[in-house]
Design goal:
The chain is mainly alpha-helical and 255 residues long. It has one domain: Arp2/3 complex 21 kDa subunit ARPC3, CATH 1.10.1760. It has 11 helices and 6 strands. It has helices at residues 6-28, 35-39, 65-79, 81-106, 112-115, 126-134, 138-166, 171-196, 205-225, 227-241, 243-253, and strands at residues 32-34, 46-48, 51-54, 57-59, 116-119, 122-125. The chain has a two-stranded antiparallel sheet. Helix 1 (6-28) packs across helix 4 (81-106) and helix 10 (227-241) crosses helix 11. The radius of gyration is 20 Å and the shape is globular.
């Protein structure tokens, strides 16, 4: 098969970015960063549902998740529900495959000269660092994959429900509306599975709800701020496809 048509090349590019960003999110997500510290502002220290001293400590995976949902909405707009579902299932399979390969890599016996390294003036055990970065717990892996699939399904369904009401107008409403709902589901599902069901942590529902709400607040704000980028990408694609082809694809995708 060759990618001779504009439609096939566009789907290849969008699908590649979709899959790449999802896998990147899983592996960079092990780093937890402070939003306030990154912005150079004082921590908020929120008290929510009886859980004190909450602030915006986020997984670095939030860097790419907004891009995933933009790709979801764009693919949904031009190619329809079936393509998004196929890519979502394929991505979940590839994430699982990536974790299997990483797990196998962790079991390899490290070379003696590689284990102890001086990195930026710090003596590090590279094998322990490798395991610490890539060795995410099974509960977190399962939670993130399930949250991804459930969030994607919700995003697709809500997108088309809104589109049936608005038609081709109000792209911001169906794209942002579907994203803020799916991000909400994603925020709570992954925490519920990884930390509430996981006996190792034994979090209370108040802890899950409070941290989920803080995480979702951040994702909600980012989803709103990403709306101009959605229109920018939409405009670039329309220019690439041409007005007539773009309209035909959008019409076919809505069936």
């Amino acid at each position: 098969m060759t990618f001779k048509t504009k439609e096939s090349r566009l789907l290849l590019v969008l699908g590649s970015f979709f899959v790449a960003n999802a896998i990147l999110s899983e592996f960079i997500g092990v780093k937890i960063f402070t939003v306030e510290g990154t912005l150079g502002i004082k921590q908020f220290d929120i008290n929510l549902l009886g859980v004190p001293n909450l602030s915006f400590n986020m997984s670095a995976g939030v860097l790419t998740w907004p891009l995933i949902f933009i790709m979801t909405d764009i693919i949904n707009e031009y190619f329809g529900v079936r393509q998004v579902r196929f890519l979502s299932i394929l991505t979940a399979v590839l994430i699982s495959y990536a974790f299997v390969i990483v797990g196998a890599a962790m079991k390899l016996t490290p070379s003696d000269f590689w284990v102890n390294q001086n990195i930026q003036g710090h003596q590090l055990n590279m094998n322990a660092a490798f395991a610490g970065i890539f060795g995410q717990g099974m509960w977190i892996i399962v939670g993130s994959i399930i949250a991804f699939l459930v969030g994607q399904i919700a995003d697709v369904l809500i997108f088309h429900k809104i589109k049936k009401v608005t038609g081709d107008k109000a792209l911001w409403l169906r794209a942002t509306g579907s994203t803020v709902v799916s991000q909400c589901i994603d925020s709570f599902v992954v925490i519920f599975i990884a930390f509430y069901l996981n006996p190792q942590y034994n979090w209370s529902w108040q802890m899950v709800a409070a941290i989920g709400l803080v995480n979702y607040t951040y994702k909600f704000v980012v989803a709103i701020l990403m709306t101009p980028i959605l229109y920018l990408v939409h405009g670039i694609i329309d220019g690439y496809l041409g007005k007539d082809l773009a309209q035909r694809m959008i019409k076919m995708a809505g069936r």
